[in-house]
C-alpha cells in the first residue's frame, strides 16, 4: 500500500520541524497555509506541492479603506415597527451588528430603498417618508394605526463575514478587521487583477492557487450580539449594488425591487419556490462572476500554476452544477466535508481535473482544547464520508486550521495516520472508480441539477430540526448502491421522464421548492408522472410530497402514494383504515421492527385514501409508511427519513420494492445494516465497511450465490477479491 500522496497538510509560521514530521506521518504530498498564516521557507523547501490561499476580494485594507463606497452591499430588512399614531420611526440598525454593516448613505434612498406597510403589503409612497443619515432612522408619515411597517435598505458590508467568524472564534483580539470589496466597481476590479498579477510574480514557490473563494459571500449576517442572524449557504443577498441593479434593468428589461432580495424577510432562502426575479438575478450574477473567474484562472495558468476553487465562503456566482461551469478551466474544487452529502456535493462536480475534501474537525481551539478528544469527531467524520467516497470518490483529502493545535493531541495524530492510509488504499484498490450502482434514482424538486446534493440545507452540514427528516434522504443515498441524479419540474414538463430512471423521489415540506407547491396544479406535470408510474415507474414521496390545495386533494399524487393529508377541509368525510401490515419487503429485515424506526417529525393527519393501501406504520392516527400498487408501477409514502442505519436500509429496500427489483436486492447486501457493501466489477473486488465505533459481524451474498462472513473491528473496512 502506498503511504504517501493524495493528502494536503495545513501549516503555519514557526512550525517547520513539526510540519515535516506530520507530513511524513500522514503521507502529505502538498502543504497549504491557513487563513491568517504564512508558510516558513523551511516548509516550502520540503519538496511538497505548495498551496497558497488567495483572497481576491479581501486582505487589502490599504486599498478599500480609501474606497469604502466600493465594499459589497446587501439589502436588509428592518424589524417590523407598529404604528400607534399617524407617524412611525423605523431604526435601520436595530438587530444588526454595526461593526459588520453600515447603511448606504451615498445612493438615493428614494430610488434604491423601499418602505412597506406589512399589514397590507403595499409600498409606501416615497413622499411619505424620509431618512435621517445622522440617526439612521426612517421617519414615516400618514401611516395607518395598528399597521406594521418595515424598511428595506442597502447596507455596506464593512467586515468580511468569514474573517470575522475566524476572528471571533480564535479570539484574534486587536487584529485589524479585513474589509471586503466588490469588483463590480471598475476601479476595484482593476485593482484586483493588478494585485493578482503582482502576487503571481512574487510567489514563484506556489504550485496551486487556492482561491478562497472569488467575489461574493454567501448570506452571512450577524446581530448586535455577534451571533449569526441570517445564514444561507446558497444566499445571493450579499451581491447587490446600485450599479448592478441599473445594469440588470438595462439587460433584462425590468427593474428589481428591494423586496426581490429581502423577500418578506426570507431573503430568498433555497426553500422558497424560486421566482423569476430570483432566477434572473442568479443568471445575471453568474454571468458576471464567471467572466471574471475565467480571467483569474487564465492568469493563473499563464503563470504556470494550477487554479483551485474552495466551495465555500465567497462561492456565490459560481454554481458548479449550472451548465457551463467546465468552461472556467478550473483545475480543482476543494470543499469542507461534513458528511456523506457534502462529500458528494464536491465529488460529483463536473468539469475539473480533480476534487479534494477538507475533512473535520477543523484545527481550531473550539475543538482542540485540553480534555477533549478530537479523534472521536475525526473518525465519525471519516465514517460518514467513506460511504460516499466508495460511490463517488474525491481525488484528494486534507485538513484545515492550525497544525500546532492538532500536534498536541497524539491520539488524533494517530487517527489521521490511519484515515489517510485507508483513503489511499481505497484509491489503489478501486483505481479511483466508483462502486457499481444498481438502480437509477432521481430527486425531483424546483432546483434540479443546479443544486445537486444541496437540497434541504440551511447551513453547511449543520443539523436542523425542521429539515433533518428530509436531509437524511440525501445522506442515506450518498453511500447507497444506487446512481443519483437531480431533476426539476421544468425538466419533466419540457422533456418528459428519462426512461433510464428507475425511481423518482419527491420530498419536502409543503409550499417549499423541494415539495413543489403550486406547480402540482399543472395538469401536464401530474399526468406525465401518473402515466410513467402506471407503465412501470416507481415514485416515493416523503413528508408532504406534491402538496398543494387543489380540487379537494392536498397531495396531488395521493392516488400514487395511497396517502393524503387532512388539512381540516374534509373532516366531515369519514376515513376507513386497512389493518396495518407486518409482512412487506420494505420492512422485512429491520432488526427491531418497523415500530422502532424513527420516521422523523410527524406529518399530522395523513390517512390512506382507500382500504387497498398497504399501511406499514402509523402513529397517533397518521400514516408514517405505506406502499401502494399503481398499474404496473408502485408508490411509497414515508413521513420522514432522518439519517440512521435503520432508515438507510428502509429507504434502500423501498427503492428496490417500488421499482419491482426485490429479486436483485440480496446480492451485494450486508445482513447487518450497520455495515454496507461496495462492489467493483471491473476490479473483481468488493469491500464491506463498518459504519460504527463498535465491532460488527455480517454476511455478504455474492452474485454467484455464495456467502462471505466478516468480523469487523470498529470503523473497519474489509476487502474481498473475487
TrEMBL record:
What does the record list as GO biological process? carbohydrate metabolic process
**Which stretches make up the Lacto-N-biose phosphorylase-like N-terminal TIM barrel domain?**
5-433
Entry's Gene3D superfamilies?
A: 3.40.50.880, Glycosidases, Golgi alpha-mannosidase II, Immunoglobulins
List, for all copies, the residue spans of the domain called Lacto-N-biose phosphorylase C-terminal. Answer: 668-719
In this protein, which residues make up the domain named Lacto-N-biose phosphorylase central? 440-663
Q: Which GO terms describe its molecular function?
A: 1,4-alpha-oligoglucan phosphorylase activity
**Alphabetized InterPro entries for the sequence:** Class_I_gatase-like, Glyco_hydro_b, Ig-like_fold, Lact_bio_phlase-like_N, Lacto-N-biose_phosphorylase, LBP_C, LBP_M
What Pfam families has UniProt attached to this entry?
A: Lact_bio_phlase (PF09508), LBP_C (PF17386), LBP_M (PF17385)
Name the domain of life.
Bacteria
Identification of the protein by name: Lacto-N-biose phorylase
Taxonomic lineage: Bacteria, Bacillati, Actinomycetota, Actinomycetes, Bifidobacteriales
